[in-house]
DNA sequence: ATGGTGGTCCTACCA
């Protein structure tokens, strides 16, 4: 048996529920982590997910902005919502997923702040917030990684860590998402918990990997100016279980798409 | 160097 876990920044779950349903019928994941649901908890389309066999749902929502959710074919326990930077933003939810035969694991679903446009924490408080958020995540990383149950970190981390995660390393060093201040922090978070970058375990560098293409690019596909902002990490005891990874790039050309595409891993 | 697009919710804000 293979366990399938997907992540997708959906940029409004209400607007894009038809695309989510299309994705679920194509990929049929056991667990789907969504970011930027952009709705209140009562507005989350739970009944649509339940009809499709996803009976177990955990949401951390706020009106209009951000918001994350875990939808699952298996029961969710120990649901937690971590607060970062005393902001009250809905940017994290975690749950323990009991698969039965396949054991239990914990998923941490994250939506890291995008960080605004100016990559200077003195001039741009959104960038400062992003750096502070990553610093807090670094402190949590070892305990999340060493939980008694195997753990996954996934979501829109809004950082493209390596030169092979962006279309142009040199020019993007000055662009929020690929600055040294951000990539150093992401690498520290990963190192503190000995997390495995599951996407790179399957598709090593120097092959380019992207999960996001800007809406502002008139011909995103031909230009292919992508970045890998979405991630799936495995704690050391879960790392040997990775067997496959797929980025559904096609979803970027579906009608009224998200600017992010879904990423799925198979776990044995 | 600039502006390019899209979602929320109704006036800018966020990405």
Q: Strand share of the residues? A: 25-35%
Task: Give the number of domains.
Answer: 1
Q: Report Rg.
A: 17 Å
What is the fourth-level CATH superfamily? Endonuclease/exonuclease/phosphatase
If you consult CATH, what is the topology?
Answer: Deoxyribonuclease I, Chain A
**CATH architectural label:** 4-Layer Sandwich
Strands of the biggest beta sheet: in what spatial order? 3-4-2-1-14-13
What's the end-to-end separation, in Å?
Answer: 7 Å
Order of helices and strands: EHEHEEEEEHEHHEHEHEEEE
CATH top-level class: Alpha Beta
Q: What is the makeup of the main sheet?
A: 6 strands, mixed
Secondary-structure content class: alpha+beta
- Provide the residue-averaged pLDDT: 97
Structural features, described:
It is a single chain. By secondary structure, this protein is an alpha+beta fold. It has one domain (3-267): Endonuclease/exonuclease/phosphatase (Deoxyribonuclease I, Chain A), CATH 3.60.10.10. 24% of the residues lie in helices and 26% in strands. Strands 3-4-2-1-14-13 form a six-stranded mixed beta sheet. The chain has a six-stranded mixed beta sheet with strand order 5-6-7-8-12-9. Strand 1 (3-9), helix 1 (17-27) and strand 2 (31-35) form a beta-alpha-beta unit. Helix 3 (125-145) packs parallel to helix 5. The longest helix is centred in the middle third of the chain and has 21 residues, at 125-145. The radius of gyration is 17 Å and the shape is globular. 43% of the residues are buried. The model has no long low-confidence stretch (mean pLDDT 97). It binds one DNA strand of 15 nucleotides through residues 11-12, 15, 36, 38-39, 63-66, 114, 116, 126, 158, 214-218, 256, 259.
């Amino acid at each position: 048996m293979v366990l399938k876990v997907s992540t997708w920044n959906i940029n409004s779950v209400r607007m894009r529920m038809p695309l989510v349903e299309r994705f679920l019928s194509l990929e049929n994941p056991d667990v789907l982590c969504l970011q930027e649901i952009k709705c209140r908890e009562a507005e989350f389309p739970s009944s649509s997910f339940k009809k499709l066999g996803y009976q177990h749902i955990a949401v951390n929502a706020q009106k209009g902005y951000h918001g994350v959710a875990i939808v699952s074919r298996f029961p969710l326990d120990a649901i937690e919502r971590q607060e970062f930077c005393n902001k009250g933003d809905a940017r994290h939810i975690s749950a323990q997923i009991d698969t039965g035969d396949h054991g239990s694991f914990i998923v941490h679903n994250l939506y890291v702040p995008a960080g605004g446009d100016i990559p200077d924490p003195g001039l741009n408080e959104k960038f400062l917030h992003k750096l502070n958020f990553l610093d807090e995540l670094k402190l949590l990383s070892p305990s999340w990684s060493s939980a008694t149950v195997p753990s996954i970190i996934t979501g829109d981390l809004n950082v493209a860590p390596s030169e092979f995660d962006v279309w142009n390393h040199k020019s993007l060093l000055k662009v929020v998402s690929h600055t040294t201040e951000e990539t150093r922090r992401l690498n520290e978070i990963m190192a503190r918990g000995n997390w495995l970058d599951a996407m790179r375990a399957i598709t090593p560098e120097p092959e380019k990997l992207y999960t996001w293409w800007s809406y502002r690019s008139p011909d995103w596909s031909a230009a292919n100016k992508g970045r890998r902002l979405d991630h799936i990490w495995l704690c050391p005891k879960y790392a040997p279980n990775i067997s496959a990874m797929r980025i559904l790039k096609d979803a970027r050309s579906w009608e009224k798409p998200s600017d992010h595409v879904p990423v799925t891993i198979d776990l044995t």
